[in-house]
Specification:
The protein is mainly beta. It is built from one helix and 29 strands.
């Protein structure tokens, strides 16, 4: 059957379908062209910023004579010149900004910074009485729209001195990422290692997770050695009945929120540690314990506990804030895990905090040995222990230990999370709150 213009229904349907296909194709083409246009704008902006930042740094390095490079805080590098002036390179990973001297810029949308490094390499020179060096500043910049393409800045500046190399302090910072991180030792020399454990999960301001501990030590390392860094995460809080929390990265144990209405329990915080040569619990030379998870009824009027602090040679036990009858978790020690009464299922283990089961309780913190989980009436978890590997403590590294005397730390200490110690931002406070942290500082050859 034909319409008044002589087209059959089938022809109309075919024509309409063809028009629709062409319209969809054109629409998709317009979208793709727009994306290409937008990407070209982003790429141009990235290349412009790359050029400007490189020129700013090179211009200053060409007009000045570098005397030393020092740390000026977290993700802050200070370049000192022989005329007693200096410039700072400040990298803000959260806000994606780069600042050098008086110049500051923010990266375009969907761009991000990777680990910035400032390194000094000693080079051979034609004159035997001169020590030549190359200062390398590497600022990797990536964008989600251009996979694996580095728009970063790499500046090389050669300088020479009649005497020895200038004193250089290079700082490498490691925040929580949810996975282990690796560090290849760039230069043979002495390094300071620092780790901060994560806090246990919170219920409230009063019934809070135990604070993470802090450990540090110095060690001689050879160029090319692989270091594995684990930065613990804060324990998870759960307020849904009959539910387990997640394990925290770094060995934090799970909590269990039972069937009682209004109860909320939190998991233990993860330990932060540094491993040398092998990625194994038995290769840890430095550990900062994570805090135990808190647990409480919603009003805190009946039962509530504070998670045990992590770190130190023995992690802290959970403490009752209100109520009675709780079987609180205890802290792991340098030689054994935390335990909760005679219930072995709640105990911690080597490198792992204990997990609650079948009755409301907070998870144990991760550590050299993990703290145990709490049980009944809103009981909290114990904190995990800290550890420093040296000539006095090596016997506590159990069977399977991969370490030897060449990895002994000196000037080493581990602090419990109830102590006051230096924080990653340079301030001093009691315990580490939130996620953990790690830092490696090159002290010289």
């Amino acid at each position: 059957m034909k319409n008044k213009k002589g087209m059959t229904v089938v022809e109309l349907i075919v024509s309409f379908s063809l028009v629709l296909v062409i319209a969809v194709f054109l629409f998709q083409l317009v979208l793709n062209l727009k994306k290409l246009y937008d990407n070209s704008i982003v790429k141009t902006e990235l290349l412009n910023k790359q050029s400007i930042i490189s020129n700013e740094i090179n211009k200053k390095f060409r007009s000045k004579t570098i005397s030393s490079t020092t740390s000026c805080g977290t993700n802050c590098y200070q370049f000192n010149y022989t005329d007693n002036s200096n410039d700072k390179l400040v990298v803000d990973y959260d806000n994606n900004t780069i600042e050098f001297g008086t110049y500051k810029t923010e990266l375009p949308k969907d761009s991000y910074l990777k680990n910035v490094t400032v390194d000094v390499v000693k080079t051979a020179t034609l004159q035997s009485y001169v020590d030549g060096s190359i200062l390398i500043v590497d600022i990797p910049i990536y964008n989600d729209n251009f996979k694996d393409q580095n728009f970063g800045i790499r500046v090389l500046s050669q300088f020479a001195f009649d005497n020895a190399l200038p004193e250089v302090t290079l700082v490498y910072n490691f925040d929580y990422t949810g996975s282990y991180q690796t560090f290849i030792v760039p230069e043979t020399g002495r390094y300071k290692l620092e780790v901060w454990g994560a806090q246990g999960g919170n219920h409230s301001a009063n019934a809070h997770g135990g604070y993470g501990g802090y450990s540090y030590g110095t060690i001689n390392l050879s160029k090319g050695t692989t270091i594995y860094i684990y930065v613990g995460s804060q324990g998870q809080s759960v307020n849904v009945v009959s539910t387990y929390s997640s394990y925290a990265f770094g060995g934090g144990g799970r909590s269990y929120t039972g069937s009682q209405s209004g109860v909320a329990c939190a998991g233990g915080g993860g330990a932060s540690d540094i491993r040398i040569s092998q990625n194994s619990l038995y290769s840890r030379v430095l550990v900062a314990g994570g805090g135990g998870g808190a647990c409480a009824w919603s009003s805190e009027s009946s039962y509530s506990t504070i998670g045990g602090a992590g770190g130190g040679t023995s992690g802290g036990p959970a403490t009752t804030y209100k109520g009675s009858g709780q079987s609180n978790g205890t802290g792991g020690s340098i030689s054994s895990p935390g335990t909760t009464g005679t219930i072995t299922a709640l105990s911690g283990s080597f490198g792992q905090g204990g997990s609650a089961s079948s009755s409301s309780g907070g998870g144990g913190g991760g550590g050299w040995y993990g703290g145990s989980a709490g049980r009944t009436n809103g009981a909290g978890g114990g904190g995990g222990s800290g550890y420093v590997y040296n000539s006095s403590t090596y016997t506590y590294c159990p069977t399977g230990c991969t370490l030897n005397s060449s990895y002994y730390l000196t000037d080493a200490h581990t602090y419990l999370g109830t102590s006051s110690f230096i924080q990653p931002n340079g301030t001093t406070a009691v315990g580490k709150t939130g996620n953990g942290y790690a830092r490696i500082t090159y002290l010289g050859s």
